[in-house]
Design a protein that fits this description.
Blueprint: E1 2-6, H1 10-22, E2 26-30, H2 33-42, E3 47-50, H3 59-68, E4 75-79, H4 84-92, E5 97-100, H5 105-117, H6 119-133
Helix pairs in contact: 2-3
């Protein structure tokens, strides 16, 4: 399984990368929104961890671009913005899940496992919809 971490805080990015690598994932990192947007749009990821407060291009804009382009990869938003309206805005922009900082690494790992486990089911739904359209 291959993941993208889009996080601009270097220490947190290294901690996430180490934890996810230890959990058996292949991990790529982006420290700004331009790089995250490019990698997310051009590389095949099983899930993405996306900070909303990225420099150059904010995370919500990146997320909207991905969704507008039809990118259906699961996205876990990880951010210091923890008010209920920010969470709703993130979900409405296309996030699949939302974790506020500070967090426990175990929660992030569990939420990613949950998002990734839904991938085969999503493929079945798409196939069923295509068959029904025929």
């Amino acid at each position: 399984m291959r993941l993208l971490i889009a996080e601009d805080e270097p220490i947190l990015a290294r901690q996430l990368e180490a934890a996810l690598t230890d959990a058996g994932y292949a991990v790529d990192s982006a420290s700004d929104g331009e790089r995250a947007d490019f990698l997310g749009a051009t590389e095949p990821y099983d899930a993405i961890v996306l900070d909303l407060g990225l420099p150059k291009v904010d995370g919500l804009t990146v997320l909207r671009r991905w969704r507008d382009a039809g990118l259906a990869v699961p996205v876990l938003v990880l951010t210091a913005r923890d008010s209920w309206h920010e969470k709703v805005r993130g979900i409405d922009s296309g996030a699949d899940d939302y974790v506020a900082k500070p967090f426990q690494m175990e929660e992030v790992l569990a939420r990613l496992r949950g998002l990734i486990s839904l991938l085969p089911l999503a493929v079945l739904w798409i196939l069923a919809a295509l068959l029904l359209a025929l």
